[in-house]
Design the sequence.
């Protein structure tokens, strides 16, 4: 299956969100995930099934104070 | 003397809040926060680096049991983005607090207060503890408070400018009318600026660039810590009025 993960194309056999995260070596407790602009609750990571073409955003916290410029 | 800052029932030990941007590395960030004595630190929400999984995570250096993590919406220029980042931050699971920024202009980084007010209303309704970054405008501060802001965060001067508290009179008016805590956010350049913010009666000060950009950030963090404590004590003590002419302070009695 083919997804877009954090803006990059990603091809994998993993079809649940938790498998995708494990495959990427990402600890689920430190991140928040959006699939096609909807937030997926942590409790649903285990059973959330991904579909071909899904757009996935995985975010965490980085250093920051005030503002940044437009992307 | 118990003089703790309380926001929505949460108690804070320090009246100096620290932003975690612009540091050399996470070790320096951790050392600076330790030196500052701060217990609130702001962080930003960004994509996980999925290509380099060896890179360290900020939360490895900031123990959430020791510090209150305050996620911000830095980088958001409209209401929709600010809501999206806030909801993601809450879902990441450290806090339902958000330092809300809706920036209106890249050159000044001044807030878009119309968008800020809308976003504050929506997020407060969703149960967020909202700390909006706003102008030094007493009317807008009141509107934000009415919209459900947990505190208001007026700027002292543009973000990163180091110009200090440019309009202490506006900050004073905000302080007089606010029923929620007032936390001066942005503009501090050096310790005396933080001190002035506190002497005016601000409940806290949030600083990032003035510390991160200093020649010795750890030393500046310590300077800011003392400046904030001194400013708070001076405010509580009550200063003498300013007068044009001298008033002697030694007695006349007993003079030869």
Sequence:
């Amino acid at each position: 299956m083919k997804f877009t993960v954090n803006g990059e194309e990603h091809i994998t056999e993993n079809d649940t969100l938790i498998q995708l995260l494990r495959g990427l070596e990402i600890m689920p407790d430190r991140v928040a995930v959006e699939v096609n602009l909807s937030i997926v609750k942590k409790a649903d990571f285990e059973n959330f099934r991904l579909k071909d073409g899904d757009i996935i955003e995985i975010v965490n916290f980085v250093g920051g104070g005030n503002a940044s410029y437009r992307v | 003397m118990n003089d703790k800052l309380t926001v929505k029932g949460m108690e804070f030990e320090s009246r100096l809040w620290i932003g975690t941007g612009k540091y050399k590395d996470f070790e320096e960030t951790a050392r600076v926060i330790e030196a500052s004595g701060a217990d609130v630190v702001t962080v930003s929400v960004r994509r996980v680096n999925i290509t380099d999984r060896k890179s360290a995570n900020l939360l490895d250096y900031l123990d959430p049991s020791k510090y209150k993590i305050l996620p911000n919406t830095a980088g958001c220029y409209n209401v929709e983005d600010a809501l999206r980042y806030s909801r993601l931050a809450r879902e990441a699971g450290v806090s339902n607090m958000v330092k809300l920024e809706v920036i209106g202009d890249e050159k000044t980084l001044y807030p878009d207060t119309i968008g800020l007010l809308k976003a504050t209303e929506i997020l407060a309704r969703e149960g967020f503890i909202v700390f909006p970054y706003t102008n030094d405008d007493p009317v807008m501060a009141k509107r934000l408070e009415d919209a459900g802001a947990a505190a208001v965060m007026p700027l002292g001067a543009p973000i990163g400018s180091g110009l200090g508290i440019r309009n202490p009179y506006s900050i004073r008016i905000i302080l007089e009318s606010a029923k929620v805590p007032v936390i001066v956010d942005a503009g501090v350049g050096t310790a005396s600026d933080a001190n002035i913010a506190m002497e005016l009666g601000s409940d806290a000060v949030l600083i990032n660039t003035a510390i991160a950009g200093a020649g010795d950030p750890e030393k500046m963090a310590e300077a800011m810590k003392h400046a904030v404590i001194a400013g708070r004590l001076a405010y509580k003590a009550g200063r003498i009025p300013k007068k044009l002419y001298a008033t002697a302070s030694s007695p006349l009695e007993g003079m030869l």
Residues 16 and 47 of chain A are 6 Å apart (CA to CA).
